[in-house]
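<purpose> Linking amino acid order to shape
<body> The protein record starts here
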Amino acid sequence: MKKEEILAVHKTKLEEFLRSIGLWDSLVKGELKCVLCEVPISVDNIGLIIPSKDKIIVCCSKSECIFKIRKLRENENEG
């Protein structure tokens, strides 16, 4: 898999992007869940997709979940 940094994906390209990283089928089946609150992720509530070591972290669009993920990432980068 080619590694590149993407800052944003428009909703019209979301399916293509999720297919490219192997997450589309899980999303469609309702198996993709927020890493924090475990709510099922859909096209309408996807908030963040972050690479982390050997896995991909997916977070819903709830502001509290996004805030927690961003704080965790900041702490990882400081330490």
Residues 59 and 66 are 7 Å apart (CA to CA). Helices lie at 14-20, 24-29, 63-78.
